[in-house]
Amino acid sequence: MIHPNPAAQSRFTTAAAQGLRVFPVLAHGKKPGVTWTPYRESAPEAALLASWDASNFNVGVITGASADLLEIDADSRRSQSSARWSRCEMDPMSFPRSTTLASRSRKTPLTRR
C-alpha cells in the first residue's frame, strides 16, 4: 500500500501562499493541464487550488516579467558557466540589473527591482 505524502497533498495551495503563480501541468511532462494565461494576472481561488491539490497534476510556476520571477535553466547546454551562477548564489545582488530572457519565440527584457 502506498501512503500519500501530506506535503504533496497541498502543493498548489502551499506554493500559492508563498506568492508563486501556479497552474497544473500534466504528469510526466511540461504541457499545461489547463489554459494557464489567466493566472498571469491573478491567483486561482482557494477552491480551485484545493481541486488541483487533489489531482495528479504537477505544479507549474508562471515566470517572467508578469510574475516578476526569473527562471534560470542551468542544466542546458547553452547555460552560463557554473562559476558565474555560483557567484550569483553567494551575492544575489551581483546579478545584472537588466537581463534578457531568451525564448524560442522572442526576447523579453526583465529588470530586477
UniProtKB/TrEMBL annotation:
Region annotation Disordered: where it falls in the sequence: 91-113
Pfam families according to UniProt: Prim-Pol (PF09250)
Superkingdom assignment: Bacteria
Domain DNA primase/polymerase bifunctional N-terminal: residue ranges: 15-101
Composition bias type Basic residues, residue spans: 104-113
Protein name: Bifunctional DNA primase/polymerase
